[in-house]
Design brief:
This protein has one domain: MetI-like fold (Orthogonal Bundle). About 70% of the residues lie in helices and about 0% in strands. It contains 14 helices and no strands. The two termini are about 50 Å apart.
């Protein structure tokens, strides 16, 4: 009897035709998404193909989608350079330690601001937001960093960017909309103080926003080069991005190279073109590898406030 009812339901479902407007919408939607997917994927595929292609083919514009004349000279030159490995180590240090500092300070700032029983929260929020629109600029910031005595140290890349007010606002919004007041009251009845409530209850429930903030801060540290260029002089402290910049500059064809043999000059120019794409892959690959593991949290965290306001 049950099987007959299930079979009848399936037949009814199959007989109910999809409205014409819905079919048109689906077709248009799939078409637009497919076009956008191709537009977004093509540059990435091209960069990968160009980095694996023959330098002459890349120079002559023969690479469109797939590699032409498989060649890994660009990667060989990059990874044979010891500075690249030194830069990788430094960048990993800046990214991991910097992200940990960022998360601690962001949570410590956002959680009190999300509590309605925290009296000065509106005043402090106004002060924080003010700094988003008005700041001293490069020279005053440099003077502050210099007065702190952290020029040409690792702290010069960690302390000036220790917290982002925009990320504090996002995290505060998550705490306000996702952590119910009743949960706090129940914890207080059980004898849980503010610190225990934050560590034992709020943080485990805030995995999505923590993952999103870790991604934001991590990518910013990984791509950091301007502050390093301003505050660092010792090459032993350089992040990967500065070393990659130097490699590109060193391999550019300049006017003082025109005394070289024509074949050597052309080879150097072709190699520099391929190396440019190899460096993009070397610099981007770690982030591309990490992103899929936190994508589910990222999608959930980025929708903060979309429903609850």
């Amino acid at each position: 009897m049950v099987e007959e009812v299930i079979l009848m339901n399936k037949q009814i479902t199959n007989n109910v035709s999809q409205p014409r407007a819905d079919k048109i919408f689906d077709i248009v939607n799939v078409t637009i998404i497919s076009i956008l997917g191709i537009i977004l994927l093509w540059p990435l595929i091209f960069v990968v193909s160009a980095s694996l292609s023959n330098p002459s083919a890349v120079w002559n514009g023969e690479v469109l989608l797939f590699p032409v004349g498989l060649n890994i000279d660009g990667y060989k030159y990059v990874f044979e350079n010891k500075d690249v490995w030194l830069g990788y180590g430094n960048t990993l240090f800046y990214t991991v330690i910097g992200t940990i500092i960022n998360l601690i300070l962001t949570i410590c700032a956002a959680y009190p601001l999300s509590r309605k029983d925290f009296v000065p929260r509106n005043f402090l929020m106004a002060v924080f937001v003010f700094t988003m629109y008005f700041n001293g600029g490069l020279i005053p910031t440099y003077l502050v960093v210099s007065d702190l005595g952290i020029i040409n140290t690792r702290w010069a890349l960690l302390l000036p960017t220790a917290v982002s007010i925009f990320n504090v606002i996002i995290t505060r919004t998550y705490f306000q909309t996702s952590i119910p007041k009743s949960l706090q009251e129940a914890a207080e009845i059980d004898g849980c103080n503010t610190a225990q409530f934050l560590i034992r209850i709020v943080l485990p429930l805030s995995a999505p926003i923590i993952a999103v903030m870790a991604l934001y801060y991590g990518v910013a540290h990984w791509n950091e080069y301007f502050n390093a260029m301003i505050y660092l002089q010792d090459k032993e402290l350089y992040p990967l991005q500065l070393f990659l910049r130097e490699i590109l500059i060193q391999n550019q064809v300049t006017a003082d190279m025109f005394g070289l043999d024509a074949a050597e000059l052309a080879k150097k120019a072709h190699l520099a073109e391929t190396m440019k794409y190899s460096l993009i892959i070397v610099a981007s690959l770690p982030i591309l590898i990490v992103y899929p593991f936190i994508q589910k949290y990222f999608v959930k965290g980025i929708m903060i406030g979309a429903i609850k306001g």
